[in-house]
């Protein structure tokens, strides 16, 4: 008898837990943060392994925290650990002693696993051996590594064109593995290298490269300690880069003012207690934001222009006192056109559009008026907006007016997400490589890399859906759940001939797969990586362009785990065979050899093997940091941009929705069910609403609702959410991803960077209906 086959769910099960609401917090970190971290480690029954590892995290000679990309201090590091609560949770997640072997997969059909929540799936343990899903299968089966590589090779070689494959990267992959990975993909013959940057800071890269000549931040950690103003816009540091709080605290102690711009009064923007300092653990915290501007979702462009307008008025009253004309004349183009267009705006209209009172905007302008040393930090609140590229150019406009880029204590600071996402890009993980980068590969290796641009994330999904991409290879990550339009993306994944995921933990992406599928278990950052009997280190680049070594120190849960470099080299041999001109055996056996190749191909990495062994690593060259600018219209100057303010009209029954992270998740990895700082306990299916909107719509706290929209003429519905009254501008709402990715149309993308615009999704809300 044929068992009835269930289609594995691409979404979290639609069921509620038991929501508890607490007052939202006004400060971040402190004793509860440390306790939360320790209890997470205990829960994974690895307390001892965990403690030992925590002490090594972000220390010299230790390993780089797998969580965020915030840099480590160059000099003093806390003796009790350079980690935060969320770094500890990230470690607990990957250092768990529980493991998933062939027996687990024999006992659990994929469809049954898919009926669990992401939280439950993540708690199952580390992947411990390679697994294979045959065509028509219901359960993953064990497979040897060599058979797995052969299968990949057979599928790739059977394609009509190398462009029928796509190779995704999430941001934890080391520099060494990233370099060999892109080398293999390009020798195979495609630039289809979508990566998590395509959902994260692509917008920053596009905007900054265009107007200052480098798609990275210009500041270093030391700039935070010696500055006048720090603006934090569209970023939630208390949760997503908690160690940034120490830098903000130190900057404040040295006299900096902090301006926070966000629709939500996030705890980490308001105040801070440092758990790594005695007074932080027991004493009172530091008030963080001197000024909090509670902007409407996507009201930032109007707000930035309103601030600039006030500064321009002040400049007209006192010429030369507010704007830095020497800097503008020497280093920029486009000032006149910028000012001309700026002066066409009306302050009151801009203020209304941002939903920020004029007096507060004036207060911001007053803080900035006489200051030059200004740092602007941003995150997903801006990059995932339709006009994100323009908004970041507007931030650059503001900094150029003040001459704030390329000076001590001033500059741009996109706060990167994954711990090595910036390094991945430096290593040429990108779908749009520059011709001179490919020229260097060609010169060093002697093969002719493909020159045409490949698919980014959104284009990959569409190409899979159309049957143009037939093999998907994921180096880390959770492509299904991280990407938009879950139903559409799941259908795209199911059309593949082969899907392969190199992973550390089981996730939903393994359960919604191609005709055949492979799960390849990899070593993680904290694992000991032995190659030929020698304990290896790898290297990563943080958010400020510092390259450092990282050496794992925990015994891997299984002797079947391979490092990612090794996986790539063996896949390359199985696929390319004698066609290859690259010595994959050499790279498989020596990270030093990989680093020598990187040194030959990538500027700034000369003498890599020596520099990476220095105490605190080394800084990569950074033009804007040194006051050297370029732009798409000048080889020697930065460019002002002329941008517009979006209308953002909503019908009476429509709302803007931003999708965001809780304090208890790392992207699609759900550590726990609390969003402690926002006062949400034991539930993820919530929607934050303004109480005025709730009253107008007739909703009370805890009411059950469905969220829906009709983008592209298709009804998209996210069912069963609980209404939570919250301090948020009217008509704005916030939910958590990935639960609401089902509402983000694949066509709702950021202009120019083509990222999913998941911070402003137009939705309607109705009472929950049982289906
Ligand atoms: N709606 C909405 N969607 C979003 C976002 C949003 O704000 N809103 N944010 C976007 C952003 S900024 C990003 S960066 C993406 C994230 O997208 P991804 O990077 O694709 O997703 P992650 O959840 O970080 O990936 C988690 C998985 O990575 C694997 N993993 C962890 N460590 C390692 C490792 O060392 N090696 C290997 N091989 N695998 C490992 C584990 O199996 C784990 O299940 O999501 C995006 N999606
Ligand atoms: N613990 C933990 N750390 C992480 C991650 C994680 O998931 N967990 N993810 C990592 C990754 S890959 C990334 S990219 C970063 C993400 O870090 P963040 O950039 O902080 O990402 P989000 O959590 O999506 O939060 C975005 C913030 O933008 C605000 N926002 C939303 N819409 C708007 C708007 O229109 N204007 C303004 N001004 N603000 C807005 C939201 O209220 C929220 O505070 O964190 C990294 N670090
Ligand atoms: Mo990210």
UniProtKB/TrEMBL annotation:
Alphabetical list of InterPro entries matching this protein: Asp_de-COase-like_dom_sf, MopB_CT_YdeP, MoPterin_dinucl-bd_dom, Mopterin_OxRdtase, Mopterin_OxRdtse_a_bac, Prok_molybdopt-oxidoreductase, YdeP_MopB
**Where would I find the Molybdopterin oxidoreductase domain in this sequence?**
126-499
One GO cellular component term of this record is: membrane
Q: Which cofactor does it need?
A: [4Fe-4S] cluster; Mo-bis(molybdopterin guanine dinucleotide)
For this UniProt record, the keywords arranged alphabetically read as follows: 4Fe-4S, Iron, Iron-sulfur, Metal-binding, Molybdenum, Oxidoreductase
**Which Gene Ontology terms describe the biological processes this protein takes part in?**
cellular respiration
Name the domain of life.
Bacteria
Quote the Gene3D superfamilies the UniProt record gives. Answer: 2.40.40.20, 3.40.50.740, Dimethylsulfoxide Reductase, domain 2
Residue ranges occupied by any Molybdopterin dinucleotide-binding domain in the UniProt entry: 656-744
Q: Does the keyword Transmembrane apply?
A: no
Q: What family classification does the UniProt entry report for this protein? A: Belongs to the prokaryotic molybdopterin-containing oxidoreductase family.
This chain's protein is named FdhF/YdeP family oxidoreductase
Q: Give the source species.
A: Chitinophaga agri
């Amino acid at each position: 008898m044929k068992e009835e086959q269930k289609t594995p769910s691409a979404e979290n099960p639609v069921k509620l837990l038991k929501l508890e609401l607490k007052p939202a917090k006004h400060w971040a970190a402190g004793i509860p943060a440390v306790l939360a971290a320790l209890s997470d480690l205990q829960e994974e029954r690895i307390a001892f392994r965990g403690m030992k590892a925590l002490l090594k995290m972000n220390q010299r000679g230790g390993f780089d925290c797998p969580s965020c990309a915030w840099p480590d201090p160059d000099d003093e590091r806390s003796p009790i650990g350079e980690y935060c609560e969320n770094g500890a949770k990230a470690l607990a997640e990957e250092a768990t002693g529980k493991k998933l072997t062939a027996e687990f997969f024999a006992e659990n059909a994929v469809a049954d696993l898919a009926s669990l929540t992401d939280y439950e799936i993540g708690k199952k343990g580390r992947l411990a051996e390679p697994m294979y899903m045959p065509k028509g299968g219901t359960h993953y089966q064990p497979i040897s590594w060599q058979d797995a590589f052969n299968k990949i090779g057979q599928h790739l070689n059977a394609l009509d064109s190398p462009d029928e494959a796509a190779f995704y990267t999430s941001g934890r992959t080391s520099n060494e593995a990233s370099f060999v990975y892109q080398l293999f993909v390009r020798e195979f013959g495609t630039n289809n290298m979508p990566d998590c940057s395509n959902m994260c800071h692509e917008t920053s890269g596009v905007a900054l490269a265009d107007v200052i000549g480098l798609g990275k931040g210009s500041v270093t950690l030391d700039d935070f300690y010696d500055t006048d103003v720090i603006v934090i816009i569209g970023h939630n540091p208390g949760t997503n880069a908690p160690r940034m709080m120490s830098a903000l605290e130190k900057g404040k102690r040295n006299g900096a003012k902090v301006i926070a711009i966000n629709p939500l009064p996030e705890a980490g923007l308001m105040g801070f207690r440092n758990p790594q300092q005695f007074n932080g653990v027991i004493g009172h915290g530091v008030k963080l934001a001197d000024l909090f501007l509670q902007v409407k979702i996507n009201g930032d462009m109007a707000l930035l222009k309103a601030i600039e307008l006030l500064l321009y008025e002040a400049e007209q009253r006192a010429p030369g006192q507010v704007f830095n004309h020497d800097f503008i004349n020497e280093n920029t183009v486009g000032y006149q056109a910028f000012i001309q267009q700026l002066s066409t705006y009306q302050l009151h209209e801009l203020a209304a559009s941002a939903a920020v009172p004029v007096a507060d905007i004036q207060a911001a302008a007053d803080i900035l008026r006489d200051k030059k040393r200004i740092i602007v930090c941003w995150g997903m609140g801006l990059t995932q907006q339709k006009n994100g590229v323009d908004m970041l150019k507007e931030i650059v406009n503001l900094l150029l007016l003040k001459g704030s880029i390329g000076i001590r204590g001033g500059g741009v600071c996109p706060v990167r997400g994954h711990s090595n996402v910036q390094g991945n890009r430096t290593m040429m993980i990108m779908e749009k490589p520059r011709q001179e980068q490919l020229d260097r590969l060609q010169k060093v290796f002697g093969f002719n890399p493909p020159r045409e641009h490949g698919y980014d994330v959104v284009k990959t999904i569409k190409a899979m859906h159309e049957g143009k991409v037939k093999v998907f290879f994921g180096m880390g990550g959770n492509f299904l759940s991280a990407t938009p339009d879950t139903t559409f993306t799941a259908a795209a994944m199911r059309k593949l001939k082969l899907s392969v995921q190199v992973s550390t933990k089981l996730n939903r992406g393994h359960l919604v797969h191609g005709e055949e599928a492979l799960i390849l278990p990899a070593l993680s950052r904290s694992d000991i990586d032995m190659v030929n009997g020698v304990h290896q280190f790898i290297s990563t680049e943080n958010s400020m362009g510092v390259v450092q070594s990282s050496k794992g120190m925990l015994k891997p849960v299984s002797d079947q785990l391979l490092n990612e470099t090794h996986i790539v080299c063996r896949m390359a041999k199985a696929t390319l065979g004698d066609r290859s001109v690259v010595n994959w055996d050499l790279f498989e056996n020596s990270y030093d050899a990989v680093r020598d190749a990187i040194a030959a191909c990538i500027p700034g990495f000369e003498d890599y093997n020596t520099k990476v062994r220095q105490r605190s690593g080394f800084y990569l060259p950074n033009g804007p940091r040194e006051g050297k600018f370029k732009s798409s219209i000048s080889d020697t100057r930065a460019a002002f941009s002329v941008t517009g303010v979006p209308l953002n009209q909503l019908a009476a029954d429509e709302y803007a929705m931003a999708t965001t992270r809780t304090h208890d998740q790392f992207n699609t990895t759900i550590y726990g069910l609390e969003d402690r700082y926002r006062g949400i306990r034991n539930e993820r299916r919530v929607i934050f609403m303004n109480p005025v909107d709730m009253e107008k719509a007739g909703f009370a706290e805890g009411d059950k609702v469905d969220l829906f929209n009709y983008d592209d003429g298709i009804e998209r519905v996210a069912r069963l959410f609980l209404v939570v009254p919250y301090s948020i501008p009217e008509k704005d709402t916030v939910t958590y991803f990935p639960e609401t990715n089902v509402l983000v149309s694949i066509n709702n993308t950021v202009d120019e960077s083509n990222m999913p615009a998941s911070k402003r999704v137009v939705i309607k809300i109705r009472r929950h209906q049982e289906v």
